[in-house]
Specification:
195 residues, alpha/beta, Rossmann fold, 7 strands, globular, binds S-adenosyl-L-homocysteine, binds magnesium ion
Length: 195
């Protein structure tokens, strides 16, 4: 991976206010990927491809990332960035709403990374559970949502997102098939290993 190209992609995304993965979050996920050496990764929420490009470095030989994005302009930028980073052979973008695309997928993934509409996290979890391999890991970003999720923010205008994030956390915590940890890195990271 060309570090300078990657840094340029990151700086442009930050300048454009694209909510790319935060450095401390990326560090935690990178460690998980080094340990698990995934063959297949599913990402929900590509944005401009930054996280997928970072993850692609840790794939097994011939491994692949499928990533989903509904914003046309971001898909276009993601394709350009993926080309610049020379990882076109490792990353496949599905353009469209993950709510429609996920039910049509029928593959197994060692890692599922949820990083899209917060109000859909419980639905994304159902789909992730269906497609995660045994021993696979479901990772969700932004689960603490600026502290709203743990605080008393029921009146906040983002209350649908908050309610659904709370439901997500409750489900991963109560599901006996999962071994879950929630870390206060970045905007809150949930890591659930499928037993
Ligand atoms: N993973 C990226 C950041 C993703 S930001 C990175 O770290 O580099 C979240 C993205 O999810 C946004 O680009 C948004 O357009 C997309 N998104 C939100 N809800 C979605 C949905 N239901 N289907 C597909 N994409 C969605
Ligand atoms: Mg995020």
């Amino acid at each position: 991976m060309n570090k300078i190209k990657l840094e340029m992609i990151k700086q442009k995304a930050l300048k454009d206010k694209i909510p790319i993965i935060m450095d401390d979050t990326l560090e935690v996920i990178s460690k998980i990927l080094i340990q698990t050496k995934p063959k297949n990764i599913l990402e929900i929420g590509t944005a401009v491809g930054y996280s997928a490009i970072c993850f692609s470095e840790y794939l097994q030989k011939n491994g692949k990332i499928d990533t989903i994005e509904r914003d046309k302009e971001r898909v276009k930028q993601a394709r350009e960035n993926i080309k610049k980073a020379e990882v076109e052979d490792k990353i496949n973008i599905y353009e469209g709403d993950a709510v429609e695309i996920l039910p049509a997928l029928n593959q197994k993934y060692d890692i599922v990374f949820i990083d899209a509409a917060k109000g859909k996290y419980p639905f994304f979890l159902k789909q992730a559970l269906r497609m995660a391999t045994n021993g696979g890991i479901i990772i969700a970003d932004n689960v603490l949502y600026k502290g709203y999720v743990m605080g008393d923010y029921n009146k906040h205008k983002q209350r649908t997102a908050v309610r659904n994030l709370r439901e997500y956390i409750a489900e991963i915590s109560n599901n006996t098939q999962l071994d879950t940890k929630i870390l206060e890195v970045g905007d809150g990271l949930a890591i659930s290993k499928v037993k």
